[in-house]
């Protein structure tokens, strides 16, 4: 069940013209900004498939940049997002790719700011709903509908149990969880969707676990 | 919990409730929010829809490309002259649908129902029905929950995006959603709602997504218009006791299979259909200075 809420169908409230190519793009951009956690100074955006063919007419470029500015789908600032990004010192590059993507509406976003770097791939599955399908090369599926935790850690035993323990102590229920790693024993990523939103105290506790490298919270 | 139209109808019949109430109860369960919060959320969507229709009828809406805008206003004037052929409420639904979709094309604020490209049909029908039946505010919101319940089933069993299933997935879903909600608001049974949904959707099957210059304008605005009229007529048919022999869930499945086998050129790529006509290509060059989409 990709669509869980009636408001996935009646909604989102948004700036036109396309829920998949405009609102979905804004949500992918916003997820990237939230995962990155700070204002990027450069953004390379690559469009694939239908996004690549029709992004100009749908304002997919301004929507995704609006999302990078942390704007919601209905924020009228989206219409002026390219100027706003420039004013904030964000260097935006838009490119298209002929490469085959798994989904017709796929965007890759690479953000950087000094030492910090993030690459995410998102797909817009229709009606404004999106999935994040890759973070820094780790393949996963995050709907963006629920509060989520991204935990980057060393790939070794007991990590999952320790994180789950913290969540359990705070009475946070896990709705969906995925683990991904690039190679055995290297870095791994846990993506955990929870039913309730998490406080900063929970994040701090998880961050304090040895061998945890980074923790990011993603609110819908 | 329901996943199919059959389950939704059965739940509504067994508990003697409206489909809207079943949807609200499921939403409470899934989201963990209170019924009041959920009603308030829908009220927000309702206000956005109302504002978009008013803008489309009263303001001089024009999209950036100048391809669309102003037709809802024309129809408004025509209706006011009082000499319409196909029935005042049908045309009001058509007007509201066009108004909304014109505002969408002009990058105005709308509520996707289920998508932005098909955002006109459900509100168009809702406001026409509200004019005709003078329902309570709660019943207007119920209309949206019932439409949402049908869209929820379609989205989870088929698709609602033009890029994945063609226009039948977008305006087809919206037309089916509206047809079922109209029947419920007019006092029909859940079973009649399901028949209206089937009658509406069977008439949208195979509809391709072929936006001229890749824009959500042509043919979208007028497909929203005619979608609204199909929803109204399908609802009338169902209320007259007319049934459709293929069950709603199978019609939805047929839509899914048709969309799966539809060529890429007819799924929002602007490579086929109306987008590939000589005039369609000429408009694309005029708007963007270059031919944007090449095979």
From TrEMBL, chain A:
Reaction catalysed by this enzyme: L-serine = pyruvate + NH4(+)
InterPro entries the record matches: ACT-like_dom_sf (IPR045865), ACT_dom (IPR002912), ASB_dom_sf (IPR029009), Fe-S_L-Ser (IPR051318), Fe-S_L-Ser_bsu (IPR004643), Ser_deHydtase_bsu (IPR005131)
Transmembrane intervals: none
Domain of life: Bacteria
Co-factor(s): [4Fe-4S] cluster
Keyword list, A-Z: 4Fe-4S, Gluconeogenesis, Iron, Iron-sulfur, Lyase, Metal-binding
GO MF: L-serine ammonia-lyase activity
Name by which UniProt lists this protein: L-serine deaminase
Organism annotation: Caldalkalibacillus uzonensis
